[in-house]
Amino acid sequence: MQKFDVLLLPRPWLRDSVNQILRVMRVTAFLLFVCFTHVSANVFSQTITLSGKEIPLKKVFAEIKEQTGYVFFYNKGALDNTLPVSFSVHNMPLKDLLDIVLKDQPLTYTISPKTVFISRKPVFSLPIPIVMADTIHDVNGVVLNENGQPLQNATIRIIGRNKSAAANENGVFTLPNLANGKYRIEVSFVGYEKYITNIEVTGNTVKVTAVLKQVQSKLDEVQVIAYGTTIQRFNTGGLSTL
């Protein structure tokens, strides 16, 4: 029996439908291209002539709308903390002017047909630095008087920093969580001279021994009188000369 190859041809009505769909797609693509080209050309053809000093952005936007018809759209509060601008332009395209007035502002913009959308620039927070445990140390010490007795409640503070401590009943104190570096420590107690010393935290154990000297009262100063010497606190009588 002789075999015949059968060639299947598309039906005429199906072929015509496909061709019609392709023609519609080509026309649609062309119209979209013309539309976007028109919008782009319209944006760049808009020019503004404007000048002034310390002009608020809201006023600048109002003047641009007056000259070009473009409406500015932004959320309430978007212009908070913005700076007034000073400039002088003549027949400048809209996009170039917006680049100038928003250069140092926390704002960005997009342009669509007859509308300028203003929005806040995204804020990126810096990552919090991680301090390794081996760079944090405690500084320990003791506060004594000249006789070696502890001075309870003596104040110990780091000069220039908001960190301080108080001595306990044994005169012992701890300044916790100090990063590696150099510090200036002041130790004070009522009735005693201040003790100031420099320390350096490098990872090794740091111990401070502060010996405070008692302040000598003027009432205990020795005075010379006509008939001998006495301490000022006991010399309550007045001296006079003729």
* Helix amount: 10-25%
| Average pLDDT figure | 78
Rg, Cα atoms, Å: 43 Å
Order of helices and strands: HEHEEHEEEEEEEEEEE
Alpha-carbon distance between the two ends? 165 Å
Supply the number of helical segments: 3
Give the strand line-up of the largest sheet: 8-7-10-11
List keywords for this structure.
Phage tail protein beta-alpha-beta fold; Immunoglobulin-like; four-stranded antiparallel beta sheet; three-stranded mixed beta sheet
Short description:
With 242 residues, this protein is an alpha+beta fold.
Write the layout of secondary structure elements.
Blueprint: H1 12-45, E1 47-55, H2 57-68, E2 71-73, E3 85-93, H3 94-101, E4 107-112, E5 115-120, E6 136-145, E7 155-158, E8 164-166, E9 172-179, E10 181-188, E11 195-201, E12 206-212, E13 222-225, E14 228-231
Parallel strand pairs: 2-5, 6-12
Antiparallel strand pairs: 1-3, 4-5, 6-9, 7-8, 7-10, 10-11, 13-14
